[in-house]
Amino acid sequence: DPAFGQADLTNCERELIHLAGAVQPHGALLVLDGGDLRVLQVSGNVQRLLGVAPEGLLQQPLAVLGGDLTERIAALRRTADLREPVALQCQLGAERRGFDAALHQLASGALVLELEPAPGSPVDVELQDLAPEVMAATLSSALQRFGAAPSVGVLADAVVEVVRNLTGYDRVVVYKFDPDGHGKVIAESRHPRLESLLGHHYPASDIPQRARALYLLNRVRMLVDVDAPQAPLMPALLPGTEAPLDMSLCQLRSMSPIHLQYLRNMGVTATLTASLVREGQLWGLIAAHHYSPRYLRSTMRAATDLLAEVASTRISAIENYAHAQVALMVRRLEQRLVEATSTEGEWRYALFRNPRTLLQPLDATGAVLFCEGEVLTTGETPSTPELRALLAWVQAEAGAGDAPFACASVGQANPALDSLTPTASGVLAVRLSDRSPDWLMWLRKEQLQSVTWAGDPAKPMVASNPLELSPRRSFAAWSEIVRGTAVPWSTTEVALARGIGVALVDIIVQVQAVRLLIAE
Ligand code: BLA
Predict the structure, then answer these.
(1) Does the beta carbon of 272 lie inside 6 Å of ligand 1?
(2) Keywords, A to Z (predicted)?
(3) Under a CB-based contact definition with an 8 Å cutoff, are residues 359 and 380 in contact?
(4) Which value, to the nearest 10 degrees, does the dihedral of the CA atoms of residues 209, 214, 219, 222 take?
(5) Which of 177, 214, 337, 389 has its CA 20 to 30 A from that of 223?
(6) What is the pLDDT of residues 304-359, one digit of tens each?
(7) CB 501 within 8 A of CB 432
C-alpha cells in the first residue's frame, strides 16, 4: 500500500493515512515511554510551541518541560481509560503557560501527548473559543431541538444551523451516504455569498475506505490551514518499534495531500468534519468549510463531537421508527386487501387502487403486477411490451426459490433492456406463484433523472492528476459511475418486498380456496 503522501489517483484508496508521520503546526505532539515517561518522538515544531528544541527533549524525562504536566499525566493514568484520547489542561515552563492537551495510550504501551496552546498564547491563527456558559446554553437548546426532530430532513437542517452558529464556519453541510458509499448533501447552512451545494452528489471514491474506517474511531477532525507547512515527527520511526507512529487517534494528524489538493481546488482553506454513525457504520458526515484559516479550541471540538453523537442517536431512532412505520403500512395493506377481496372478490384492483400504499414503503417510482396473463401498472413504468421483456428476463435470472430478485442496473445487466433505463433502472421482484409467471415488481427510475446537476452533465470531466480534483469533477465522476443505475435496494427493502409477497400469496391461496368452495 502506498505510504502517506505517496499515493496517486490510481491507488489513493489504499494510502496509509494513519501513518502520516507529521502533525499540523498549530499543536505539538510527543510520544512518551509508557514506563518512565521518557520522550521518544516529537514533532518538529516543539521549539516554537514549547520553547525547547527537539534535541533538548528526545530521550529526556518529560519533566524537562517543567510545570505540572508530569503530575497531571500520572494522575490521569491512575483513573482514566486511555485507549481513547482524554483531555487535560496543564501548564508548562517557568512561566506556567497554559495548554490544552490530549493523551492516549497505544497498544504497545507508548503514550501519545498532543499539546495546543490555550487562549492567550501567541498563535498564527486566532483561536475560536466560547465561554462555558454560552456553550452549555447552545448545547442544551440544540439537544432539545434535535430530540424533537420528526424526520432526518428536519434533523439535518437543525444540525447544519446549530453547528454553523456554534463554530462559525462559512459553510456547514450534512453529507449522507447511500448503500454503495456515494454521498449526497442533504442539508446546508452557508454564508449568503457562497454558491449552494445542496442536493449535490459525490462518488464513494472521494473518501477512501481506509479514511472511512478511521472516521469511526476518530469522530471529529479539524484542518486549520490547508497551506500551513506540516511539522514532521522526529525521529521518523518510533524508537523501540522502528515503525511509523500509528496516528489513527491523533487530533493533530496531517491530512492526506490528495485530500488537501481537493480542498485547495475548491477554494477551501479550513475544515471541521464530524462522523455520523448508525449501528457501527458511517451513516454520513457533518462537514464544515471555511475560506480562511480557522482554529477551534478543543472544547469546541468536543462540543461538536457531542452534537454529532446526539444527532447520530436521533438518526437511529428516526430510521428505526420509519422502519416500524413501514412494517405497519404493510400490515395495513394486507388488511385492506383481505377486506377488498371479501367485498369485491378482487385483490388485484384493491392493490392498485391507492398507488401510494404500494410505492411509498419501498420508495419505488413505479410498480407492476403480472397475474394470469394480465399486466397492471401504477406510477411511472415502461410500455407493456417492455414490461413483458423485463418479466422474461427476471424469470430467467431469478431461478427457482422464493427470494426476491433485486437489481439496480437493469440496462447494464441486460443491454437488450436498455430502453427501460429511464423508468426502470431498478427492479425488485417477488414471485407470487410456483406454477404461473405471476410476479409483483417495484421499479425505480435512473437516479440521474432526479439529481441537481453540478455543472454540465454532457461534459464529463475525468481527472488523472490531483491538481484537477474538485467537487465538479467528483460530481461528473459520480454521474458516470451511477449512469444507468437506480438507487440500490437496501436489505430492509428487500425484506419488506418479501413480506408483501408472502402476504399476497396467502391472500391468493385464500381466494382460490373460496372459488373452489363456490364451484362445488
Ligand atoms: C477525505 N474526502 C475526504 C473527506 C471528505 C471528502 C468529506 C473527509 C475529510 C475529513 O473527515 O476531515 C470529500 N469533501 C468531500 C466532498 C465534498 C467535500 C465530496 O467537501 C463536497 C463538497 N479524494 C478524492 C479522490 C481521492 C481522495 C479521487 O476526491 C483519492 C483517489 C482521497 N479523500 C481522500 C483521502 C482522504 C479523503 C485520502 C482522507 C483525508 C485524511 O483524513 O487524511
Answers:
(1) no
(2) Chromophore, Photoreceptor protein, Receptor, Sensory transduction
(3) no
(4) -90
(5) 177
(6) 999 999 999 999 999 888 778 777 877 777 787 777 767 666 777 777 777 777 88
(7) yes
Q: Which atom of ligand 1 is nearest to the CA of 17?
A: 43
CB 175 within 8 A of CB 160: no
Q: Where are the domains of the chain?
A: 27-122, 345-446+484-519
Please, which residues bridge with residue 234 across strands? 42
Alpha carbon distance 55, 182 (integer Å): 47
- List pLDDT tens digits, range 140-187: 999 999 999 999 999 999 999 999 999 999 999 999 998 888 889 999
Contact at 8 Å (CB) between 408 and 488?
yes
Cα 352 from chain centre: 36
The rounded distance, in Å, linking the Cα atoms of 216 and 218 is 6
List the Cα angle 501/506/510 in 5-degree steps.
145
Q: Residue 155: which region, alpha, beta or left (left: phi > 0; alpha: psi -120 to 50)?
A: alpha
Which three three-digit cell numbers place residue 152? 432526518
**DSSP secondary structure letters along 28-51:** EEEEE-TTT-BEEEEETTHHHHHS
Q: Is the pLDDT confidence value at 456 over 70?
A: no
Where helices occur in 345-378 by DSSP H, the ranges are 347-353, 355-359
Give the fold, CATH level 3, of 27-122.
Beta-Lactamase (3.30.450)
169 dihedral zone (left: phi>0; alpha: psi -120 to 50; beta): beta
The CA distance from 264 to 227, in Å, is 8
Nearest ligand 1 atom to alpha carbon 477: 28
Q: Are 115 and 101 in contact (CB under 8 A)?
A: yes
With respect to CATH, is domain 345-446+484-519 assigned 3.30.450.270?
yes
The response to whether residue 475 sits with its C-beta less than 6 Å from ligand 1 reads no
Measured between alpha carbons, how far is 464 from 247 in angstroms, rounded to an integer?
Answer: 29
pLDDT confidence of 460, banded at 50, 70, 90? Answer: very low
> How is the beta sheet containing 366-371 ordered, strand by strand?
374-379, 366-371, 439-444, 426-431, 405-407
pLDDT digits (tens, 9 = 90+) for 36-56: 999 999 999 999 999 999 999
Question: Is the beta carbon of 507 within 6 A of some atom in ligand 1?
Answer: no
